[in-house]
Write the structure tokens for this entry.
Amino acid sequence: MPIYQEVSPYSDHWPFFIEGVPTASMSDPDARQRRGGRGYGHTKYDTVDKVNIKYMWDAVANGARLLLRVANSDEWPVKHREKEEIDDIVEKQGYNETMVLIQKMIKHVSTKKNLKPEVEAYINRVRQGYR
């Protein structure tokens, strides 16, 4: 399984990453190219029939190996990131414009009255992950 470092403001990990908390995930970068992105992820179409059992086995095996290493390590080699390091990663991966646009969206929507509850919930979630 290839190892690479990547972060995305569209990830569930983003609010943690942006605050410097070490984050990680497992995925198959080749699978992403084959299916053109998540597409149905986090929708009602994200159903168990779309799970590739081989990929699931690989993820479980690698996750178990990682947990075994963590459990037997006297010193964990990750650290809380500083704001400057986070900003550098965001810039290198080209998400500066995304960050600016999200701040503008939050500011604009926050001026509106009588927002639907689901819109308010979304804005509150987004606010937590974008500083």
Remarks:
- Residues 53-71 form the longest helix (19 residues).
- Helices lie at 14-18, 29-35, 53-71, 83-92, 96-110, 117-129.
